[in-house]
Amino acid sequence: MTPYIFLCIVMAAAGLEAQHLTKEQKDKTLQYTAKCIKQTGVKPELVVEAKKGNFENDEALKKFTLCFFQKAGIIGSDGKLNVDAALAKLPQGVDKKAVGKVLEDCRKKTGKDAADTAFEVYKCYYKATPVHVV
After folding, report:
1. Does pLDDT of 13 surpass 50?
2. Right CATH number for 3-128 from 1.10.240.10, 2.40.160.20, 1.10.238.20, 3.40.50.10540?
3. What is the pTM (predicted TM-score) of this model?
């Protein structure tokens, strides 16, 4: 895969079209996405599809999810969501009270390991909210 194609896929996976994000948040999202794709070996196409709500049951995708959210500082090494940290990272214009309720519900999701737990939390959040930063 050429570096240009890889960069395009990473940008799509990072969700840089998210209009609520600041430039700094977009830059960090791109950086974390690129690092976690490289670290986990996930196919970038799976990340793009997950951002659209198409969640493949793929171990590398689960590891990517854990990696990304750990780098963002919202999930611990055990895969458990830190609701306060997640709320603090939300962009301007997002109803934090409504999202907080969703996060409280989603933090109860568990999986067979930390990556699976992070993936279940992400799927729960995605399905319950209209604003998807990642």
Report:
1. no
2. 1.10.238.20
3. 0.81
